[in-house]
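Re: that chain you flagged

S.,

Sorry for the slow reply, it's been a week of failed gels. I finally had a moment to sit down with the sequence you sent. For the record, here it is as I used it:
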Amino acid sequence: MTIKVVRGNPTPEELAAALAVVRARAAAAAAAPDGAPGPKDAWSDPARIAAARLPRAGAAAWTRTYWPSQG
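Prediction finished late last night. Pasting the structure tokens below so you have them in one place:
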């Protein structure tokens, strides 16, 4: 694998840190079984919406059932 600096002038420490991250990601990818799902993003978890408090009862309660930040 070849890494090339296209822009900028990184210090040896910055280059070593970037290389450490790339090597760690490559090692994690190699250790994972093929076809294994990756970690699930928290923003797509439906439980975060369901965990919000219930909307107050009233004529417009249905408008507050999905968006937990309103009401």
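What I noticed first: The longest helix spans residues 12-31.

Talk soon,
D.
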